[in-house]
Design brief:
The chain has 22 helices and 14 strands. Strand 9 and strand 10 form a beta hairpin.
Length: 623
């Protein structure tokens, strides 16, 4: 009873420490973001639609997000989303501390610093503001799942809770599946490294239980997807290329690329990048030396079982980067960016728990370097937020000038006159690059110098930030003519002009597209419902025409590409794409295509025509 009470008191003390340090590090790194408006990029759309039904997230397989938002409430304040995120991170820190038996307050402070100040949190608060707490909720669910699998000793309650938490995490944001994997993997590795031979055998049961839980969670998750899509009468718009995953030729190239991507990510601490790289090399070498010493102590006994365990430990050690970056491998690099890499920073746990019993100066050096990394994270975060704030203010000022010029045109009535934007905000010469912040451009979404980055964000910015209603025309309704092409670019005089009862605003020069591809027809081949792999790298709309560039393939077949829209078929030009060939293990590189069609493409069909097999494969694409 006394022991249980003492353990309870210790846990409460650690939880308080996790809460304290998470909020201290969080405020140092992210208070600027929480206390200043800087809506940009996707955060404009998320903020504009936070009261919506969440159908797009459901289509992405994140069907628990609308449920989470329903229970959380429809908040619109940045600081509240941040506070909730910090709360979730502090619980994650506590659970990880409990799993790895981290009791020292100094280690808890460092672990909290790594998990709170990393670039995943920075990019969330800089670019996907109102989704920050939602993503960290998915992170918390994944961590709870790992904790239940490891700490609950009774098999049935352990597996039930593990499966439920992991399913919720997958249904909120799939990438945090990697958090569950890396926590479990590091725990097995650490315990195998430090346990005696008999206890090491027990870890096999945990590994088996984890595999069963993962399988059951994936089954439940897939059932949930089918039910949610049926409710909204929609279809899945996922990013995973199942053809590539099952293609054995892609496994080896992407296995090694997964390691390369892992180590490159740690260079994304934008402040003092070269020093940061040196620190990480030192810490990696330090951890490896401790690992090697422990392996040597095990195998020097010459016990057969110890030698086998030592070999297993060596294999597990080399797999740590791969497991942490498993989402890169699963998606074949398609959706590998900072939001999907929170699992990387849990690897720091190894540095904190693998400490030598002797030579105390080594611990102090590790602590000092860890504090330095966290400090660099804090500086990087504030640089990012400062740039986003400058871009936000510049966008607000530019849009104010634009609205003023529009109002001065005779015949323009705000909210009634149709408005067509020609070109793009982020291509306008007013939005020049901030050279002082070049070092943060490597982070996703931070290169742009305008808060308005793609079609749809301009209407959200004008409506919700500027509190102005204008009748923005969809791009397909824009009427193009020579007089529009001759207009100067905003803010020059004449860049906002009334033409035939419409307001045209020329934001940037209109790109000149290649000549239209020839119109064709489909041959009388049989249609196959085989799934094809494709990706549209770029779509440009200009002067009533659309230009597509991308890649597509069906197995290893050689195919022609045809684009169909509104009953018209246009044969695309085939291009060499050695990158696609290498990525997906194809026999040749003739899987790229480009095409220009004389209309604006919203919903269209991509056809692959196999003349050798006399078959046609197709994919419907909706913008």
């Amino acid at each position: 009873m006394i022991v249980q009470k003492k353990l309870s008191e210790d846990n409460i003390s650690i939880l308080k420490s996790c809460l304290f340090w998470t909020f201290i590090w969080g405020l140092l790194a992210h208070s600027f973001a929480l206390l200043n408006l800087h809506y940009v990029h996707d955060s404009l759309v998320i903020s504009a639609n936070f009261i919506g039904e969440g159908t797009w997230e459901i289509a992405l397989g994140r069907y628990f997000q609308p449920i989470y938002v329903f229970f959380r409430g429809k908040i619109a304040t940045i600081w509240l989303a941040g506070i909730l995120a910090f709360l979730y991170i502090s619980i994650v820190t506590f659970l990880i501390s409990d799993i790895f038996c981290i009791k020292k307050q100094s280690l808890v402070a460092l672990l909290s610093g790594f998990l709170t100040t990393n670039v995943t949190i920075t990019v969330l608060l800089a670019t996907y503001i109102m989704g920050t707490d939602t993503f960290m909720f998915a992170n918390l669910m994944a961590t709870c799942s790992a904790w239940c699998a490891i700490k609950i000793k009774k098999p049935v309650p352990s597996m039930i809770t593990c499966v439920l938490f992991l399913t919720v995490s997958l249904a909120t944001y799939q990438a945090y599946f990697a958090v569950f994997l890396i926590i479990g993997f590091l725990y097995i590795f650490y315990k195998l490294l430090t346990a005696d031979t008999e206890k090491a055998k027990l870890l096999l049961h945990l590994f088996t239980k984890a595999l069963v839980c993962i399988s059951l969670s994936l089954i439940l998750y897939k059932i949930g997807i089918k039910i949610s899509l049926k409710i909204i009468n929609g279809k899945l718009a996922g990013y995973i290329d199942w053809n590539a995953i099952t293609n054995i030729k892609t496994i080896i190239p992407f296995f090694f690329k997964t390691y390369t991507s892992f180590f490159k990510t740690y260079a994304h601490i934008a402040f003092h990048r070269s020093i940061t790289n040196v620190i990480h090399i030192f810490l990696l070498t330090y951890t490896f030396c401790i690992f090697a010493k422990l392996i040597y102590e095990r195998i020097k006994t010459k016990n057969k079982q110890d030698i086998i365990i030592g070999i297993i430990e060596c294999v597990l050690f080399t797999l740590i980067p791969f497991v942490a970056n498993i989402m890169f491998f699963i998606t074949r690099g398609k959706n590998s960016y900072e939001l999907t890499k929170f699992s990387f920073y849990i690897v720091y746990v190894l540095i904190l728990v693998l400490q030598p019993k002797r030579f105390p100066p080594a611990k102090k050096i590790v602590y000092a370097l860890s504090i330095l990394i966290i400090t660099f994270n804090v500086v990087t975060a504030n640089q990012v937020y400062t740039k986003r704030k400058l871009a936000y203010d510049a966008t607000a000022y530019t849009v104010t000038r634009m609205l003023t010029m529009m109002s001065m045109e005779d015949g323009y009535i705000e909210g009634e006159t149709p408005v067509a934007f020609i070109g793009h905000f982020d291509s306008n010469p007013l939005f020049q690059n901030y050279e002082e912040f070049d070092n943060v451009n490597i982070l996703v979404g931070q290169k742009q110098t305008s808060s308005i980055t793609y079609p749809g964000t301009e209407s959200a910015f004008i409506k919700y930030i500027m509190n102005t209603r204008i009748a923005i025309l969809p791009y397909s309704d824009s009427l193009f003519s020579d007089s529009i092409s001759d207009m100067p670019v905003f803010p020059a005089k004449g860049s906002c002009k009334m033409i035939d009862g419409m307001m045209f605003v020329k934001l940037s020069d209109i790109p000149t597209l290649p000549s239209t591809n020839k119109e064709t027809s489909l041959p009388p081949y049989s249609f196959r419902e085989d799934e094809i792999s494709f990706y549209i790298d770029n779509k440009i709309i200009s002067l009533g025409k659309s230009h597509l560039r991308g890649w597509a393939y069906h197995k290893n077949d050689t195919c022609r590409v045809v684009i169909e829209s509104d009953g018209h078929f246009y044969e695309a030009d085939i291009e060499s794409r050695p990158d696609v060939q290498t990525a997906f293990g194809l026999d040749n590189d003739k899987h790229g295509f480009s095409a220009t069609v004389p209309q604006k493409l919203d919903n269209y069909t991509l056809y692959l025509i196999n003349d050798e097999k006399k078959e046609i494969y197709r994919a419907k694409i909706e913008s």
